[in-house]
Design a protein that fits this description.
Length: 186
């Protein structure tokens, strides 16, 4: 029995250590990476998360990413309903900002890591559009470089089923722990 308890404790420790792998996340409003027994606490809108990593080419990359505001419903969005995954959608806008550290190489930003999580666990992707009909300034769709010490701020537009509201904003870059922000009820 004692051997089983010791082995189980060792496996839990190894599992918890393995779950925190990937890019390092630290700085503003930091919280531990999720493990099998704990979940990362959602940040509040307006706060940022500092992260650092080694880029694919081996260079140092670091920035602070923040979800600033969330608005639903949004008036003045003039888009065809067919762009959303839901009939007769309700439009929502998320404003975000990424600021590269002064000692970082260029940070490439895009809409793709951002999603809205609904209470049932499903996620809604941004429309991936910029230009006419989308609130400006639009966050880059396919990627833009943010130079060392510089920031980029913009808006992402989402189409949601009428009457639904996300509970979390998720920023999920492969190789790093996902970061979430709580969506206010109204």
């Amino acid at each position: 029995m004692r051997i089983r308890t010791t082995v189980a404790a060792a496996l839990l420790l190894v599992g918890a250590t393995a779950c925190t792998g990937g890019g390092a996340v630290d700085g503003e409003a930091s919280s531990p990476a999720p493990t099998s027994t704990t979940a990362a606490k959602a940040l509040t809108l307006g706060s940022g998360r500092h992260w650092k990593d080694i880029d694919g080419d081996g260079s140092y990359i670091a920035a602070t990413t923040a979800a600033l505001t969330y608005t639903q419903p949004v008036k003045g969005v003039h888009l065809p309903d067919g762009l959303a995954d839901f009939p007769d959608p309700e439009w929502a806008v998320l404003e975000v900002r990424t600021c590269a550290d002064a000692d970082s190489t260029n940070v490439i930003v895009a809409q793709s890591p951002w999603t809205l999580r609904l209470a049932d666990g499903t996620r809604v992707k941004p429309l991936g559009l910029s230009g006419y009909g989308v609130p400006a300034p639009a966050y880059p769709v396919s990627g833009a470089a943010v130079g060392p010490g510089d920031c980029l701020r913009g808006k992402l537009t989402f189409g949601l089923a009428r009457g639904s509201r996300p509970d979390r904003i998720v920023y999920d870059v492969e190789g790093r722990p996902a970061v979430t922000w709580a969506v206010p009820r109204s």
